[in-house]
């Protein structure tokens, strides 16, 4: 290549970097992200242009137009306001954010670990008589993956409509043969993909939801994916700590709607739509969904509103503690109100950069009076939230920017003293196996490690 050609190429890259930097300033959701991208694109376009193509967008376009779940399409859900727990009023902002009310009359079962969760989910799936909707971020072709595969094939062979979604990036190492075997057996299975040209190159927008709906009457949400590691069978992160929730009652229809939105985005068709079976439970519940197609940052707003609702205690369990300013301020204000604020995070790292950033955020939280703990026995992947003595949430949302802004997520917020007591008992056991973090974790760390923590924090918008 001649000197003039090299010069022209460099000028072209800087010109493209300038236009990309302008795009980043206008479209990046956070000021930190906008500054980071703009500086990188202006100063080092040969390094940052390609990553920006794949990671730079923060809006998932086209998805709202694909919503197939109109009220006229689904059975109407009646809300008995008198049957709702009074504590639901504290979460009115979350209900308004979601555009749907709390619903009463639910049974909830807390599934505390992977063995309990998959025993329950596989048994429910095997008993499906009409329809089975299954969605996980990760599918692995291992022992657990093949157990799930066999149940799906058996139900399809019995004439049951089986619809399966998995994330194309989260399940990047899933062999095509696994998918082909399911399709050959009558299972409708698809990877979640960005789908439209404006999203086509984006790796950020992942569907992190975990949903199982059986016959429109039973549903499961939580943090578990399909893989042996979620049963604690893969060192060095074993034993794996995670939690799932089984629901019966009206909000199962809301989870069915949510799955149908994702299914319609990918296939252009609707899965089977079934009436929610009557349930005589006492819990009130609200399905909280979020994603990069939302006009507002639903994930961050959910955590902020839930934290503001706490008056006595606020206990959190999360594998990734990278809160944005709104959530961190809400936690600090809760401490100032006299709330018992505790956060449980892992002592082992599955993603080194996130772990380093989490360590620095944990240090800052500690200085603000937040009690921070590291779970000791194995990797903590649990996403649990306990508010006072009557409310708790279980789902897929992590406390990081990826869950707040970049991933499609789902959680179930349950208002019920019995369920909250079960979650509190579970978390008390987890805290008993944890080590309290003190200032020495940061203060006594080698200097270069502390520098690495601060560098990792610069990537908060992508973590």
Q: Give the C-level CATH assignment of the largest domain.
A: Alpha Beta
Number of strands: 16
Number of helices: 15
Low-confidence sequence ranges: 65-77
Overall tally of domains: 3
Describe the global form: globular
- Residues in helix, %: 40-55%
Distance between the termini: 39 Å
Determine the structural class based on helices, strands and strand pairing: alpha/beta
Taken as a percent bin, the fraction of beta residues is 15-25%
Sketch the major β-sheet.
Answer: 16 strands, mixed
| CATH architectural arrangement of the largest domain | 2-Layer Sandwich
What is the averaged pLDDT score?
A: 88
CATH superfamily of the largest domain: Endonuclease Chain A
Radius of gyration: 22 Å
CATH topology of the largest domain: Endonuclease, Chain A
List keywords for this structure.
single chain, 463 residues, alpha/beta, Endonuclease, Chain A, 3 domains, 16-stranded mixed beta sheet
Notes on the structure:
By secondary structure, the chain is α/β, with parallel strands linked by helices. The protein has three domains: 3-55, no CATH class; 63-84 and 108-279, Endonuclease, Chain A (2-Layer Sandwich); 298-462, Endonuclease Chain A (Endonuclease, Chain A, 2-Layer Sandwich). Helices cover 40% and strands 19% of the residues. It has 15 helices and 16 strands. The protein has helices at 3-27, 31-43, 45-55, 92-98, 114-126, 143-157, 176-184, 251-267, 298-309, 325-336, 352-367, 401-406, 417-432, 440-443, 447-457; strands spanning 103-111, 131-136, 161-167, 188-192, 206-207, 211-214, 218-222, 244-248, 283-290, 313-317, 340-346, 371-375, 384-387, 391-395, 407-415, 434-436. It has a 16-stranded mixed beta sheet that branches. Strand 11, helix 11 (352-367) and strand 12 (371-375) form a beta-alpha-beta unit.
């Amino acid at each position: 290549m001649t000197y003039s050609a090299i010069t022209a190429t460099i000028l072209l890259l800087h010109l493209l970097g300038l236009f990309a930097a302008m795009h980043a300033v206008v479209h990046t959701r956070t000021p930190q992200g906008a500054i980071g991208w703009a500086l990188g694109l202006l100063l080092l376009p040969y390094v940052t242009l390609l990553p920006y193509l794949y990671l730079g967008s923060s809006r998932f376009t086209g998805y709202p137009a694909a919503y197939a779940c109109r009220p006229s399409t689904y059975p109407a859900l009646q809300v008995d306001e008198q049957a709702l727990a009074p504590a639901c009023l504290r979460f009115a902002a979350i209900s308004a954010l979601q555009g749907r009310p709390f619903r009463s009359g639910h049974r909830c079962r807390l599934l505390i670990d992977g063995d309990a969760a998959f025993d329950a989910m596989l048994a429910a799936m095997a008993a499906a008589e009409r329809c089975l909707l299954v969605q996980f971020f990760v599918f692995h072709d291992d022992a657990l993956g093949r157990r799930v595969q066999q149940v799906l094939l058996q139900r399809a062979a019995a004439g049951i409509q089986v619809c399966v979604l998995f994330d194309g990036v989260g399940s990047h190492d899933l062999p095509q043969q696994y998918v082909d075997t399911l399709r050959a057996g009558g299972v409708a299975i698809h990877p979640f993909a960005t789908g439209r040209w404006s999203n086509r190159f984006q790796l950020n927008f992942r569907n992190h939801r975990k949903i199982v709906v059986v016959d429109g009457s039973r549903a499961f949400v939580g943090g578990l994916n399909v893989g042996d590691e979620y049963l604690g069978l893969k060192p060095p992160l074993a034993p794996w700590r995670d939690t799932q929730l089984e629901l019966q009652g009206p909000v199962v229809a809301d989870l069915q709607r949510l799955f149908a939105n994702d299914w319609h985005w990918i296939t252009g068709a609707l899965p089977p739509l079934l009436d929610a079976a009557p349930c005589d439970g006492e819990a009130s519940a609200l399905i909280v969904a979020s994603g990069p197609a939302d006009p507002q940052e639903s994930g961050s707003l959910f955590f902020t509103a839930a934290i503001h609702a706490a008056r006595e205690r606020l206990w959190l369990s999360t594998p990734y503690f990278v809160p944005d300013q709104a959530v961190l301020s809400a936690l600090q204000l809760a401490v100032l109100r006299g709330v018992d604020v505790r956060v449980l995070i892992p002592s082992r790292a599955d993603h080194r950069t996130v772990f380093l950033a989490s360590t620095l955020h944990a240090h800052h939280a500690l200085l603000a009076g937040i009690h921070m703990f590291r779970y000791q026995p194995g990797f903590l992947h649990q996403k649990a939230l306990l508010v006072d003595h009557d409310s708790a949430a279980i789902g897929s949302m992590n406390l990081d920017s990826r869950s707040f802004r970049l991933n499609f997520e789902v959680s179930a917020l349950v208002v019920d003293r019995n369920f909250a007591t079960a979650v509190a008992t579970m978390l008390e056991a987890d805290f008993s196996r944890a080590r309290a973090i003190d200032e020495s974790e940061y203060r006594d760390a080698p200097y270069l490690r502390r520098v690495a923590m601060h560098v990792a924090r610069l990537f908060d918008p992508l973590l």
